[in-house]
Amino acid sequence: MNRRHWLRATSAAGIALLTSRWGIAEDRALALSELFPGLADAALDRAKALGASFADVHFMQTDEESIFVRETMVQGIDAQSSAGCSVRVLVDGCWGFAASAVINREEILRLTEQAAILAKGQTGWRLRRLEIETLPAHTGKWEMPLEIDPFTISLEDKTADLLTITQTALGKGANFCDAHLFQVRERKWLANSFGTRVQQSRVRLQPAFSVTVLDPKKGGFASRASLLPPRAAGYEHMQNWDAAAESALAVEQARQKLTAPSVTPGKLDLVIAPSNLWLTIHETVGHPTELDRALGYEANFAGTSFCTPDKLDRLRYGSELVTIMGDRTAPGGLASVAWDDDGTATAGKEFPIIERGIFRNFQMALGQAALIGRKESNGCAYADSFDSFPIQRMPNISLQPGPDPAATAASLISGVEDGIYIEGNGSWSIDQQRYNFQFTGQVFHRIRNGKLDGMLRDVAYQGNSVDFWNACDGLGGAATYELGGAFNCGKGQPGQIAAVSHGAVPARFRKINVLNTANESGQKTACFPTHSRDCCCGEARTSWT
Known about the structure:
Blueprint: H1 3-9, H2 12-49, E1 54-70, E2 73-91, E3 94-100, H3 105-121, E4 139-143, H4 155-171, E5 176-192, E6 197-215, E7 220-225, H5 236-239, H6 243-259, E8 262-263, E9 266-272, H7 274-286, H8 291-294, E10 324-327, E11 351-355, E12 358-359, E13 381-382, E14 391-392, E15 396-399, H9 409-414, E16 418-430, E17 436-448, E18 451-456, E19 459-464, H10 465-470, E20 472-475, E21 482-491, E22 496-504, E23 507-516, H11 517-520, E24 527-528
Parallel strand pairs: 4-6, 8-24, 9-16
Antiparallel strand pairs: 1-2, 1-5, 2-3, 5-6, 6-7, 9-23, 10-11, 10-15, 11-12, 13-14, 16-17, 17-18, 17-19, 19-23, 20-23, 21-22
């Protein structure tokens, strides 16, 4: 139904309930702040009496709202809150963990005893005793800076903003257009036996859309999704986005895709925009350098890693230009917090993962550093819910700008005779060791003689993580740096979801293997030669996957 009909059909009581939900959540957060000190102390005292060498107590409240629209219709609205507590103990070198949605003294003491029982039950079959480092004690409260709290913006205003996007796209000739808005607030309280007592709150926002244009004569279609990344920010992130202008551009680019020539596969130079490169960083650097994955702890779910501990300070992961940093402090970063879920302060914990091409550091949580002879973790623990055990998760992981501050995407393109400029992330595939990969995108511009020369379609680039980053020979300057990212990085068993940002600059890569996705899927296409020496063959070939 359209917005006007939806508002009419929604009862006054329903609107009032949706509107008042976040006020109720705010009141509950204040109540949790009052309860936390006394309940945390009680649990930590009981854990010590039960033989725990370390214990921590977590409270967490999560508020989420999602709005979906399509063309002129409101498709759905979802709003939910959750809150609860957990206790984690280390007894005789083994972890124990218990959680509950009930928060009172009796329950938290029961959880402490249950966690201790679980820890003691593992001592008979453990492979090695877990040793953790001693962390400094921290006290304080941190609230993520934001200009406009999205939970104070009315549903009517949000749906109106989304429908403006879809209606603009329809007016420009889109046959279909959908848009959505996700917003999340996380509040966390943490106390541990090292003396830490902290509270923090952060908000993240993800507005997005997708347009589709049909070719009624040929029966084809083309789509283009928005390029705006999610951000740790308030509703100002939505208001500062010229979404109507981007939706109009997206329609035009989708229309160009319909008539664009299909790429001829081969070795091509690529210039990749930050809006595409962030996902490549995530998959080819972020996941491979998770220490728990490299040690085999993720093997049963999402694979291991080619990047094993013996490669530290030895592996040439990329060219001399490539430095990739990990941090939890970047403004607007989806993984930015004041303290991780082990209680490690993140300020000053920024670290190089790749430094001038050399692999230097894994991402680590409490107790992992000793496994590879390091002294301490680097603040990479996170739990996505009150009933989730904190595990190692990605910080913000970002490609640093190149040495020439004047370098831009245009100057990198000027150094390419035959190649492709890629914008926006699309589908992706990577093997179980995070080594061999394939990525697509949203928009592919042909580069000829240092200039953009029309659009291509059916493009994917393929390689392995090490060869790809060693093929990098040009980076944009600091002014070209952009922060991309995702809400939905999955890991662990039981599965957990984390939001993470990846900064990048435009980057140039030489002689990367480019595939024709239509041919790979068995479709026959008319190819457009990008090399004069290449034949134009539409014969279907075996898929790389």
